Amino acid sequence: MKRISRISSMLLLPAILLAAWLLSGCSPARHVPEGKYLLDDVKINLNDSTGRLDQQQLMTYVRMQPNHKMLWATKFRLGIYNMSGNDSTKWWNRWVRKLGEAPVIFDSTATMTDAGQLRKAMVNAGFLDASVSVDTFADRNKRKMKVEYNLHAGMPHIIRSVYYEFPNDTLRSLIMKDSARFTVRPGDPLDISLLETQRELLTTRMRSNGYYAFGKEFITFNADTTEGSHDVDLTMTVKPAYPSDSPNHLIDTHKEYIVRNVYYIIDYDPGVTEDFRHYQAADTVNYKDITILYGNKRYLRPSLLYDNCFIRSGEAYNLHDVNNTYTALGRLTILKFINIRFIPAGNFNNFGLLDAYILLTRGKSQSFSAELEGTNSEGDLGVAAGVSYSHRNIGKGSETLTAKLRGAYESLSGNLSGLIHDRYLELGAEAGVNFPKFKAPFLRESFKRRIKATTELNVSMNYQERPEYTRIISTAGWSYKWSERFNRNRHTFTPIDINYVYLPESTNDFLDEIAPDNPLLRYSYEDHFIMRMGYSFYHSNKRHETPWSRSFQKNIYTVRVNAEVAGNFLFALSSILSHRSDFHSQPYKMFGIHYSQYAKIDGDFSFLHLFDTRNSLACRFGAGVGVPYGNSAVLPFEKRFYGGGANGVRGWDVRTLGPGRYPGTNSVSDFINQCGDIRLDLSVEYRAKLFWILEGALFVDAGNIWTIRNYPNQPGGMFRFNSFYKEIAAAYGVGLRLDFNYFLLRFDMGMKAHNPALGQEPWPLIHPDWHRDRSFHFSIGYPF
Predict the structure, then answer these.
(1) Same structural domain for residues 174 and 192?
(2) Quick one: CA dihedral 764, 766, 769, 775, positive or negative?
């Protein structure tokens, strides 16, 4: 019975999908009321001889859209909804309707409203003579309705000249000093979005030059058109301030303001403090030109608060300084809420005065977590436990301390003769400190404040006991991270990162037994030392979301680049202290350990095109190369590239592809040979949202890895310019994803299409074998 139940549950989802597909084509109007029509299709016919209008962009103004079509053909979610009955009190009907999508009923009133919105969109783009007509096509038998919007754009109105009017010469000189950056120019269409962009630009400029109360409502445009002509004479007017006796005159909007005082309220609670100007401080500290009002605890140092404040007493109000202060304080993890308020404080000569209040609310400073697990491996019992601790203000500078301890133990049974341990034992500890400041000597404070970087220090140690050996792995690193331009550009610079592996004991002839002729495998179990320096760069053109943004971004690209070098400083030092000409056969050592020397760079470019909100096409190109030199003849194993897996060519399991034409042996230990110094990845993936949280995908992957030299244990793996293209592996497959918004679970099945490995079927696409060619992958997040 249990097996029957298990089989039936496995068949439930495919049965639902098949039934939904059938119902989406057979009876789409099943739940459409009598006398109504299912909105089957909406089409825009655009007549625009200028090519300025985007048909897909105009479709976003049509609110009444038909049910979503999967692969632009099948209304899959409607088919799921149609599986429900009419009785909404039954759980099955409610559940199925929740998974599906209710039929969209044709509404003539909504159709005319959408036609009006389409015309308005064209008029806003400069096509003042635009017109829209609507055609409807009803299928009475199937109770379906098709709607076509016929858009006639006509000729756009073009700005012939731009005139400017100002209430005084001071505003004229301020606004016109950088007129080359204006978005409204002669020859451009009379596009409302360009006018609005210029209003935003000039308002920001004013508020960045002391005009605290200036708003964009004071900037207006007047278009003068002539009948029979499409030329426009545009006048931009900066209106004068409200009269002093006007009810709108709460503050002088056309006056330059200077910051008088800067106050920090450290323990602000809006639920307790009614007016922050009357905050009762337990302690008041004057530090340089800021005043700090402390509560019961001085949980942040005055110097930290000063360094993260760009608003300065005696300087003109500047919107950029306010935004930079928000950004800098936002990096302090101890803070829960940040609010900056300005209060008028009278006048001085011709300037207004402002008092700045920076209101901070503290969050939780400490957290603790623990985990426990047990194992049973063929009768050998084991246990593992770990604890984590975090402190977000360890030195009263919002420094974040994280610490983790983990231990695992498993007893071994059977014949243990010749071994040094009768157990698996692993003890690990790691700690890190994050400083919300660029910690470095010999750098000017102005540079540190401008770059707004965080500094990270991390150390770890891992002690391992195995039957054959004891190994200790230690790491330490110092890095800087910073971002810019709405997080579109992100940088990580690691001036030093150290990795040290030490084997204090092992069984007799351990290395000769596991790797008699394999330098890669021997390297993984020998003492080695890596001291590297690295840099990572990330860039994306994804737009910063704003409350007034209406349309989605159709094309998004991302660039990632990583570069690192290792061993150069040690090699130079070794050459000075102990120069030798035969370092290739007798490498230099540091503390008696051979250290690595290499250079490595790799990068990825990914591109995402959104057809609409539910269908997209993603592409990826990736490449990398690592070169050992000087003190090393081979890259460290952990620095080499590998092929296959959930983020590579998905027709192969991880570390089973390449290098080059190397076929592998399918043994557990051979994965050490299936790595290389050069990588190439190409992928194309179509993604479609299905229903509920399910998303489907179709993909094609290509790529491989190669070695930069001809290593005896990796025959056929060396990269050659005249033949590498013949060694590019290819795969195709399907995927299913569960999108939970905060994270995505991914299930992919890939099939080999072209296999370059020696002695294997070269074209599985033509001669497929399910057991030989398929590979399943489970991962978190998109592959690119």
Answers:
(1) yes
(2) positive
Query: Residue 454 in 3-state DSSP?
Result: strand
Stretch (H or E) spanning 24: helix 2-26
Rounded-to-integer distance, Cα 9 and Cα 6, Å: 5
Per-residue pLDDT reduced to its tens digit, 650-673: 999 988 898 999 987 665 456 677
DSSP state of 104: P
Tokens standing for 611?
A: 């057809």
Residue 576 φ then ψ, to 5°: -75, -45
- Report if residue 567 sits inside a domain: no
Residue 94 domain-assigned (yes or no): yes
Q: In this structure, what CATH number is given to the domain that contains residue 224? A: 3.10.20.310
| Alpha carbon separation from 274 to 16, 268, 277, 280, 357 (Å, rounded) | 57, 10, 9, 11, 14
Tokens of 347: 């006048």
| Backbone phi, psi, residue 352, to 5° | -90, 155
First to last CA, the chain: 43
Helix (H), strand (E) counts: the chain: 14, 29
Give the whole-angstrom CA distance, residue 230 versus residue 245: 42
CA atoms within 13 A of residue 376's CA, in its CB half-sphere: 1
Pair of tokens at residue 336: 């829960």
CB 256 within 8 A of CB 241: no
Residue with tokens 């076509």: 148
Is residue 783 classed as helix, strand or coil in its secondary structure?
Answer: coil
Q: What is residue 671's three-state secondary structure?
A: helix
Q: Is residue 201 part of a domain?
A: yes
User: What are the angstrom distances between the C-alpha of 217 and each of 123, 139, 682?
Assistant: 22, 50, 50
Kindly state whether residues 297 and 229 are assigned to the same domain: no
- Distance, in Å, from the CA atom of 367 to the CA atom of 535, rounded to the nearest integer, reads 31
User: How far is Cα 292 from Cα 657, in angstroms, rounded to an integer?
Assistant: 61
- 653, 641 in Cβ contact below 8 A? no
For residue 284, list its beta bridge partners.
293
**Within a 10 A sphere around the Cβ of 772, how many other Cβ atoms?**
13
Do residue 98 and residue 52 come from a single domain?
Answer: yes
Q: Which run of H or of E encompasses 97?
A: helix 91-99
DSSP 187-243: TSB--HHHHHHHHHHHHHHHHTTT-TT--GGGEEEEEEE-TT--EEEEEEEEPPPPP
Q: Is 521 helix (H, G, I), strand (E, B) or coil?
A: helix
pLDDT in tens, 549-598: 445 688 999 999 999 999 999 888 888 887 666 656 678 888 778 888 99
47 with 128, same domain? yes
Q: Are strands 290-294 and 219-225 parallel, antiparallel or unpaired?
A: unpaired
Joined tokens for residue 194 = 């360009």
Report the candidate in 694, 673, 574, 671 with the shortest Cα–Cα distance to residue 632. Answer: 574
Residues 346 and 269 in one domain: yes
CA–CA distance, 670 with 194 (Å, rounded to integer):
61
Residue 275 falls inside a structural domain:
yes
Of the candidate ranges 33-47, 272-286, 503-517, the one whose mean pLDDT is the lowest: 503-517
Q: What type of residue sits at position 175? A: I
**Collapsed DSSP state (helix, strand, coil) of residue 169:** helix
How confident is the model over 742-756, as pLDDT tens digits?
Answer: 889 999 999 999 999
Asked if 280 contacts 267 with a C-beta cutoff of 8 angstroms, the reply is no
How far is CA 458 from each of CA 139, 397, 462, 527, rounded to the nearest angstrom? 68, 18, 14, 22
Whether the Cβ atoms of residue 185 and residue 177 lie closer than 8 Å to each other: no
- Claim to verify: residue 110 and residue 85 sit in the same structural domain: yes
Q: How many residues does the chain have?
A: 784
Domain with 103, as residue range(s), is 2-152
Has residue 766 got a pLDDT over 80? yes
Can you say whether the dihedral through the CA atoms of 750, 753, 756, 759 is positive or negative? positive
